[in-house]
Amino acid sequence: MEDELELIFPSKKYKEQIEDFKEEFINNNENDIPGGGGLEREETFVEWLQKINDDLSEEKSKARGRVPSVLYLAFRKQDQRLIGIIQIRCKLNDYLLNFGGHIGDSIRPSERNKGYGTKMIALALKEAKELGIGNVLMTCNKNNVASARTIIKNGGILENEVNENNKVVQRYWISLKKRYADGRNKANHILESDFKNIRVDNEEFKGNISLLAIKKVRKEWRIDVEKRCILANNYNLLEIYPDGKQYCITAMFDDKDKIAEWYFDIAKEVGEENGIPYEDDLYLDVVIVPDGRIHVLDEDELKNAYERKEVTKDEYDRAYKVANKIIEKGKKKETLEQLSEFSNKYLKILRGDEDLL
Fold first, then answer.
1. 163 is in which domain, residue-wise?
2. Whether residue 235 has pLDDT greater than 70
3. Number of other CB atoms surrounding residue 15 within 10 Å
4. Which of 54, 61, 256, 308 is the most exposed place for a label (fewest CB within 10 A)?
């Protein structure tokens, strides 16, 4: 479990352990410490520590031709031994997009092949999500099977292979934007809930439809200037995952079975994992309120992700193309009527009030 390790930002307190860590690489005839922030190149600990702190600043890192980043020491909790170093780059430049990725990491030679790499990356991904990174790129040399294995265990999907200085580099993407129908991504808001999913394949609809019946929430979730409530005790979230589409729909029902809104998540992919539907979120969202109002959300998040090179130009354009189609259809009265009829029908089916046939 990753709780065997903890990530700590470097300080003077850890000078002796960091220098010992570095010495072990040198004694093992290794001249490179991936993710070490240039630890092997800096002549003194003080210079290295200053650079690590400068890398936290976009302005200071840019002045040195670098991207802002955060470096962590990975300590084993049991004995506080420094096991590894891992660096999270907050954005990508052209080189990192092709060859380096968001995360670089090293395990000291004496602690390799014990599963620590997988655990360290898992902890770093949590930090990356907190930093606002939605899609993490990790790379490794093709002949580094152990490194590839740790990436894959953390959800890495191989996109392609590229050549760098006569070496084949594999590029893996790890999505931190997957959202699952069973509410695991809403854990901070939902305290108690029941989940049910059915597979539908008829002339009306083909895909998965789920019901997340909310029993208890941490607190009510209100939005808009009128403080419209979209999540509270005894609310129901009917989640609709159509096959072959790049969006999913959440129909939010209040405790009186009245629809509060339809929330369209634009997705890179809609799929199913271990029987649970999911959507791999592409930032942009469209909300349609039963009274006809339409809101487009998270345009700034999509723009920032594109600028950080987490989203390609094709994905950026596709998100708006899908959103615009939803908006155009949402303006029609018959669309709202169809949405309402469909949502109410399947709420009753999943609650057991009506049969599917």
1. 2-176
2. yes
3. 14
4. 256
Asked whether residue 195 is domain-assigned, the answer is yes
Q: Is the pLDDT of residue 1 over 70?
A: no
Instruction: Please give the structure tokens belonging to residue 81.
Output: 């031994």
pTM: 0.86
Closest CA to 235 of 306, 171, 186, 288: 186
Provide mean pLDDT across the span 104-131: 95
- CA-nearest of 181, 205, 202, 203 to 193 is 181
Of 176, 196, 231, at which residue does a domain stop? 176
User: Residue 137's domain is classified under what CATH number?
Assistant: 3.40.630.30
Calpha distance 20→235 (Å, rounded): 56
Whether the per-residue pLDDT at 107 is higher than 60: the answer is yes
Non-local CB neighbours of 308 within 8 Å, separated by 6+ positions: 90, 91, 92, 133
In a shared domain, residues 88 and 143: yes
pLDDT at 352: 86
Same domain, yes or no, for 161 and 259?
no
pLDDT score for 228: 83
Residues 283-296: what's their mean pLDDT? 94
* Domain shared by 162 and 189, yes or no: no
- Do 140 and 23 share a structural domain? yes
